[in-house]
Fold this sequence. Notes:
Elements: E1 2-7, E2 20-25, E3 30-34, E4 40-44, E5 58-64, H1 68-79, H2 83-103, H3 105-116
Helix pairs in contact: 1-2
Amino acid sequence: MKLKYIGESFGVDSLTNGVTYIATVSDVGYYRVFDDSGEDYMYFQDNPRPLDGSAPGGRWEIVEDMDDRERELYEKIKRATTPDETNALLDETVKICEEYAVKYADEIEDVVQKNLNNPNKFK
Length: 123
């Protein structure tokens, strides 16, 4: 999936206002997002923000929704009843991220380069 972050930019290698990121499902309430660092990290689905409260965060705008595999996996995660079941499903989200790291390598690298070359990120 692809998500556009709308809100105050935060972190040197975190999220930048107006940038579209490659992402996938994660645990309930979270997305795994290839952020400005080029690595995948978990961010809140509602109000993605730094955990330390240093910025108010923002929201996601869905640019490209989950594919069928992601949607099915997310529904299974929401219905999981045991920690072992949840962990096995979360392992599947990691596999999707590994696939996306290869499939979308050029797009992820473009985000990293734009971040590195953006002197106005925090203005």
